[in-house]
Amino acid sequence: MAGGKTRAYGLLPVVSAMALSACATPQVDIAQPQVAVPAEWQVAEPAPISTDLTEYWTMLGDPLLTSFVEQAIVENRDLAQSAARLDQARASLVQARAGWLPSVSASGGASRDLGTNPRDGVQFNLGADASWEMDLFGQIGGSVAASQAELEAAGYNLADLQRLIVGQVAIATIQARATAQQLVIARSTLEVQDDNLQIARWRNQAGLVSSLDVEQARAQRAQTAATIPLLESSLTASANSISTLIGEAPGRVYTALVVDTETQVPEPPQLAGFEAPAEVLRRRPDVRAAEATLVASTARIGVARAQLLPLVRLSGNIGTGSVTAGNLFDVITGGLLGSVSQLIFDGGRTRAQVDSAEAAARGSLAAWEQTILGALEDVESAAVDQRTAGERVLLNAEALDAANNSAILARSQYQAGLTDFQVLLTAENQLLSARNSLVSAEADRASAFVRLTQALGGGWTGTDSPFPPVAMSAASDRTMP
Question: All domains of the chain, ordered by start, with CATH?
Answer without folding.
Answer: 41-100+138-307+365-479 (1.20.1600.10)
